[in-house]
Amino acid sequence: MIAVDWGTSSARAYRLAPDGAVLARREGAGGILRVPEGGFPAALTEMVGDWLADGETRVLLAGMVGSRQGWQEAPYLACPAGLDALAGAVVPVPFPGAAVRLVPGLSAEDAAGTPEVMRGEEVQVVGALARPDEDALICLPGSHAKWVRVAGGRIAGFTTHMTGEAFAALKDHTILGRMMTGTAEAGPAFAAGVARSAEGGGLLHHLFGTRTLGLFGRLAPEDAASYLSGLLIGHEVAAALTGGAALAGGAVLAGGGARVEPALVRPLVRLVGSGPLMALYGRAIALKGGEAVPGDPDAAARGLALIGERIQWA
Amino acid sequence: MIAVDWGTSSARAYRLAPDGAVLARREGAGGILRVPEGGFPAALTEMVGDWLADGETRVLLAGMVGSRQGWQEAPYLACPAGLDALAGAVVPVPFPGAAVRLVPGLSAEDAAGTPEVMRGEEVQVVGALARPDEDALICLPGSHAKWVRVAGGRIAGFTTHMTGEAFAALKDHTILGRMMTGTAEAGPAFAAGVARSAEGGGLLHHLFGTRTLGLFGRLAPEDAASYLSGLLIGHEVAAALTGGAALAGGAVLAGGGARVEPALVRPLVRLVGSGPLMALYGRAIALKGGEAVPGDPDAAARGLALIGERIQWA
């Protein structure tokens, strides 16, 4: 089977063995924003035409390729949803010589009834589970970071935090960026930002401190991006751990069946993704009293393989 | 006396009678960013040369004109500071034919020791007081909104919130702006954003709801800017009222000498400024359980007059 994680700005294709092992992988030429109207069949052929010529007949796609701006819209599936529900809701798209299916995104509502959506992260989440019936709290850092509660192997709910995109907008388009050099790293300045996020005054007040600390020589230009990142990720992690623990239950987060007092639990967070954000989130989670464990870097491929096994292809 | 509130992007000049009454007022050609190196004497002459020719010999300047990027740096004065301290710390700058003084900005530290600064708002605050020994909580909306605690007529401390600049960056440089038309208004969508700010999940999560509510048809494009503004100002006001009440004391905020249970107090906030933000902040403060009262629209001129009275000009 061929699996493609096809997002807004990038695409990653995998050739999978029947047991789900990754036989080959490659980066596509770009995300859905680079595909012209009606150009998806050609873009797929360009990306994996040689694998198709070599005998592959099944293609499973996930991500923004199933959005209104993609190949065809695959309507959101409501949580809770697991492998079987995802496999049962795939959407076929016409393509000569192979069966092509789109994995739907998921929708949910947060505790207050505000809608939530994801496209693509759901395959990473189901691919990151250690057991098919697992309970877990999974974090996927990114422009729109997701915190996903998994109960009994199914995605029970999730929240999105615009942390990455807010960081970029604040760094590049406010006065804060004028005094910044370099990029965010998980060192002392990042930890100082995380610590600051626990103090009073709120995020909008904390942001201004990035400027005043610089003005008074207490934050070097090369540390300012790290401090700002720590502020934002610190606020996110604190809110997510509070919400995640409250929603999923302390005992669940302890990772076992034992009944534990919630106050004594050190929340376990599985981090899924790659790149420099992983170190930043791992540090922030630890500083907030949680424990971050790395997930499978090939979670998307594994999730797509598991969904593919459950699809009625014929 | 001539008084000039000379900020980064604008300048406002007043000709004042000996009793502080505003005899004339005008907008200057622009803020300090438009003045070339060494060009401040010429810029002042351009702005108020006719008043000087008409016999004025004293000029008092406030705002970013006293910053490193301005005419000359007037070092920050530490809080607490009132009229006498400000008058005693003005900085003379050479100018042919008139005595020109710069009002210093103020610095403070928040409860956690993070520095705070203002330049220009201090004259508005002292000018907005109803009595020379007043206790008050004063809010100055803007790109960098200030919440100022006044105790016994002196500025005791303040916090800055980057709400206005964050709003602009998020609206113009993230995915949220793509679905927005129109500007922020103090209607139902703004109130919904303020209400949302009181729910769990944190600001970075709430931001994403602006997008998902639009995606599900629950927030019209023409309402999205108002909702986003309500989210941000709601977060700011909640943090500021909590901090302001905690720091200044409930009884003080009740505006009288009576001892009142803090929980029963409706915080009184004097709003100083002008433009559309006044209505937004007034609404948000009311929705958060406070009471907003408008301050003197000529607070800057009044504050400069009061400081001018106390300066040793000779």
Word description of this protein:
By secondary structure, the first copy, chain A, is of the alpha/beta class. Chain A folds into 2 domains: 2-132 and 298-310, 2-keto-3-deoxy-galactonokinase, substrate binding domain (Nucleotidyltransferase, domain 5); 163-294, 2-Layer Sandwich (Nucleotidyltransferase, domain 5). Chain A contains 10 helices and 14 strands. The first copy, chain A, has helices at residues 40-53, 83-88, 121-128, 163-173, 188-197, 203-215, 221-248, 250-253, 277-287, 299-310; strands spanning 2-6, 11-16, 22-27, 58-62, 77-78, 91-93, 99-102, 106-109, 115-118, 136-140, 145-151, 154-161, 268-271, 291-294. A 6-stranded mixed β-sheet of chain A has the order 3-2-1-4-7-6, with helices on both faces. A 5-stranded mixed β-sheet of chain A has the order 12-11-10-13-14, with helices on both faces. In chain A, a hairpin with a 4-residue loop joins β1 (2-6) and β2. In chain A, α5 crosses α7 (221-248), α5 (188-197) crosses α9 (277-287) and α6 packs antiparallel against α7. The longest helix of chain A is centred in the last third of the chain and has 28 residues, at 221-248. The radius of gyration of chain A is 21 Å and the shape is globular. The two termini of chain A are 14 Å apart. The model of chain A is unreliable at 245-261 (pLDDT under 50). Chains A and B meet through β9, β12, α4, α6 and α7 of A and β9, β12, α4, α6 and α7 of B. Chains A, B: This is 2-keto-3-deoxy-galactonokinase. Chains A, B: InterPro entries: DGOK (IPR007729), DGOK_C (IPR042257), DGOK_N (IPR042258).
